[in-house]
Design a protein that fits this description.
The chain has 464 residues and is an alpha/beta fold. It has 2 domains: 280 residues, TIM Barrel; 127 residues, no CATH class. It is 39% helix and 15% strand. The protein is built from 15 helices and 19 strands. The strands form 6 sheets. Strands 1, 2, 3, 8, 9 and 10 form a 6-stranded parallel β-sheet that branches. A 5-stranded mixed β-sheet has the order 4-5-7-6-19. The chain has a two-stranded antiparallel ribbon with strand order 11-14. Strand 1, helix 1 and strand 2 form a beta-alpha-beta unit. The longest helix is centred in the first third of the chain and has 23 residues. The chain is elongated and about 80 Å long.
């Protein structure tokens, strides 16, 4: 069984949280069990301003991931002050991306500078996620998404979604019993061991152990006295520290962690990994296709809009769409680039009836599509063919037939604008899943985010 220890590392209010972080990093180093510490950008800056070079070096012996710049909030007061998913729900795709890229680029840069290397894993904040997050972090050079979106948060098969490599796993957590007063430390440790062995004996292929260093110093979240349930944080000088455990209580909790990590390190059937360990195996290798390979993709597509395999490597519907558009636009090109574009970001046009057009008119439409891809890096939601508009699903099928047969007349059939799902209920899970578990304690619909997450299924493919 593979096992991944990960720590959402976010408390930038209480300096004592730095000591708990140091203790956890040292425990994992002592037993040679790697861990991933998802660092909030402001937490990295907090460590630096506190002069905690010792903590930075200890954590740096493990994977340093990324956990957003400020955790839940976007502090730029030139924008509306809302929680991130709440803001994304109301904005166009491009406006949302502009803000995410502007604000998260600072955190990615600072974590890289302070710890001496670029983070490549994003550990999502609480349950909060949206496809705009994934696309933004992919563009910022953070290509791995830990834990996964609602349709893929338990499946251990790595996939690509929004150009991020998704590494998901069933999870256990220290926090399931860490703060119970009706259990002794020994009983808590025994329960952790039982839970872990249950997964091992049950054949779980990959298990995640997830927690927060701040939970080793207090049973009150670090945000709670300051901005829990609001985005209107008080001025920095007025931030208050939550009540802490006694030093003895924190040492007791760290003892549980120490004993549990030692226990895991002694089990031969457990392979301890971090998320970055998956990158060398699953990162994209190919950059180009030949025209013969492109035609092989077209032959495999048929009437089904889904990912395709070529020589053991998978290609998403969005990538295939871009391959065909280029090939039909640049008819003499022998090398066709593989471009990792995203899906439509507006509701696709529903072409419910078939239409016929001359080949040259169709190639002119392909040229417009190709220019759109070069400008926007995405599948268009509507394509003008003659005097009508059609959706990308039907246009993809027509492009596939066109690269296989050079007939004078091209038929664009009615087709679904969403790819076939990997799991039968993927679209239902995206529609009913909570894109923002934290703020959905309040009454938010977030239907736009849910629909965008479905449209970005164009980018889904198995990692191979």
């Amino acid at each position: 069984m593979q096992m991944i220890f990960s720590f959402d590392t976010e408390d930038y209010v209480d300096p004592v949280s730095n000591d708990a972080l140091l203790g956890l990093a040292q425990i994992h180093t002592k037993y040679d069990v790697p861990a991933c510490f998802g660092i909030v950008g402001e937490k990295a800056r907090f460590l630096q301003t506190c002069g905690r070079r010792d903590v930075i070096e200890a954590v740096g012996r493990h994977e340093v991931g990324y956990h957003s710049d400020h955790h839940f909030i976007l502090p730029d007061y030139s924008y509306e002050q809302e929680f991130i998913p709440e803001y994304l729900e109301k904005q166009s795709w491009d406006r949302a991306m502009t803000r995410l890229l502007a604000e998260e680029s600072r955190g990615v840069h600072d974590v890289a500078e302070i710890f001496g290397r670029q983070p490549i894993t994003w550990l999502r904040n609480f349950g909060d996620w949206a496809p705009q997050y994934l696309c933004a972090f992919a563009r910022l050079g953070v290509p791995i998404f830990a834990y996964g979106p609602p349709f893929h948060n338990q499946d251990c098969m790595p996939i690509w979604y929004c150009n991020q490599l998704v590494i998901a796993n069933p999870r256990i957590t220290y926090e399931s019993n860490l703060h119970r007063d009706d259990m002794t430390p020994q009983e808590k440790l025994a329960e952790h061991k039982r839970n872990m062995l249950k997964h091992l004996e049950g054949g779980t292929p990959r298990l995640g152990c997830v927690t927060h260093p701040t939970r080793f110093i207090s049973d009150i979240w670090w945000e709670q006295p300051n901005w829990m349930n609001t985005v209107d944080a008080p001025p920095r000088r007025q931030w208050r520290i939550p009540p802490r455990f006694s030093k003895e209580k924190t040492e007791e909790l760290l003892w549980i962690a120490d004993e549990f990590v030692k226990f895991v390190s002694q089990i031969e059937d457990v392979e301890s990994l971090t998320f970055s360990d998956f990158w060398p195996k699953y990162k994209t290798q190919r950059e180009w296709l030949s025209r013969a390979e492109m035609k092989e993709l077209a032959s495999g597509l048929g009437d089904r809009m889904t990912y395709q395999y070529l020589d053991g490597e998978a290609f998403s519907p969005a990538e295939i769409f871009a391959v065909f558009a280029f090939a039909l636009c640049e008819l003499t090109a022998n090398n066709i680039p593989i471009r990792h574009i995203i899906g439509p970001t507006d509701e696709p046009v529903d072409n419910s009836s078939d239409c016929q057009m001359r080949r040259q008119d169709f190639l002119d439409s392909c040229m417009e599509v190709e220019m759109f891809i070069r400008d926007k890096g995405r599948v268009p939601y509507a394509i003008k063919v003659g005097q009508i508009e059609v959706g990308p699903g039907g246009f993809l099928q027509a492009m596939a037939q066109s690269v296989l047969q050079e007939s004078e007349s091209i038929q664009i059939r009615s087709a679904n604008n969403l790819p076939e799902p990997i799991h039968p209920d993927d679209y239902k899970r995206l529609d009913r899943g909570a894109p923002a578990g934290y703020i959905q304690k309040r009454s938010f619909d977030l239907s736009n985010i849910r629909r965008m997450s479905q449209l970005q299924y164009w980018t889904v493919k198995p990692a191979t």
